[in-house]
C-alpha cells in the first residue's frame, strides 16, 4: 500500500510517498524561509501564493523520487488543519482535485495527529504514551492511548514555544526562524545569567510563555534604554538567549514529567519543530532516564512540518475506512 501525503499547513510545501505505515519512499519539502525572513515572520498571503506556485512541482518530485506513478497510489492524505487557512486551502484543493481526477481515495489528517505519528516513521512507540507537541504554532500535551484515542492534557494559553523563540529572536535582532539561532547562541551563554520566570501553572498541564517574553523585553530595555540592540555585547546577548532557552526548556520538561508521573505511564514522545532544539532533547532524555521512562525522538528532518508524517497518520485513517469526500474543507482551528 502506498500513501501520498500532502502538507501545506503553514509555510512549507511538502509531499511524500510512504509504503505501508512507515517506509518513506520520498519526502520533499519546499521551504519558504528565505521569502519570509526579511519580514521577521510568516506573511500568510505570501505563504499561500508560494504554495500555489510550488505544490504541483513538489508532488511530482515526490512521485519521481519514490520511483512510482500516480496510478500506483492507493490513497491521498492531506492536512486539513489546524494552520493558516489560505495555505491549507491550497493543499486541500489540490488533493481533492487530484484524487477526483485519478480516482484515488482521499483522507483528511489533523496536523497535530501527523506530528504525533512522526516517530512511527523510524521506530515503534508503544501505546499508551504521553506526547508533547512543541512547535511554532502549538504547544500541547496529550495522552495517546492508541490510534484515534487521544486525550488532551494541556495546551498553551497564549504563545506557542516556537512562536516565543521567533519573537525573542526578533527582539535580539536575530534572523528568522529564531529557534535554531537562539539554540546556537545559547551554547555560548550562561543559562543562569538572568533569572527569567517559569510559568509552571502547578494546578494545570497548560503552558504560558507571554510573561517570559515580557521579562526578556524588560531585560533588554534595562540594558539598552534607547532600544539599540547593536550596542549590547555579544556575550550578554548569548547569556540572555541561554537564560531564555533554559526557562522554556525547564517548563516543557517539568510538565511532561508531571504528566507521566500522574498518569503512571513511563513512555514519552516528543515531536514538533521545537523538538529539534538540542537543549530540549538533552534535558528530556535526562529526565526520562531519571524517571526510568522510554523516550522516542524523531530525527531532525521529521521534527518540522513534513508530508511523511501526514501520510503516516493517513495510512491508519485509510485502513480504518475513514474516507473524506469532496466536501472536505480545511479549518484554521482544529482541536485533535
Report the strand count: 10
CATH topology assignment of the largest domain: Nucleotidyltransferase, domain 5
What is the CA-CA span between the terminal residues?
A: 26 Å
Based on Cα principal axes, name the global outline. globular
Low-confidence segments, given as residue ranges, are none
Summarize the main sheet. Answer: 5 strands, mixed
Number of folding domains? 2
Report helical residue fraction.
Answer: 40-55%
State the assembly state of the protein chains: single chain
Order of helices and strands: EEEHHEHEHEEEHHHHEHEHH
The SS-based structural class is alpha/beta
Just name the CATH architecture of the largest domain.
2-Layer Sandwich
Strand arrangement, major sheet:
3-2-1-4-5
Q: In DSSP terms, counting alpha (H) and pi (I) runs of 4 or more, how many helices?
A: 11
Can you tell me the CATH class of the largest domain? Alpha Beta
Mean pLDDT over the full residue set: 96
CATH superfamily name of the largest domain?
A: ATPase, nucleotide binding domain
Please report which band the strand proportion falls in: under 5%, 5-15%, 15-25%, 25-35%, 35-45% or over 45%: 15-25%
Radius of gyration: 20 Å
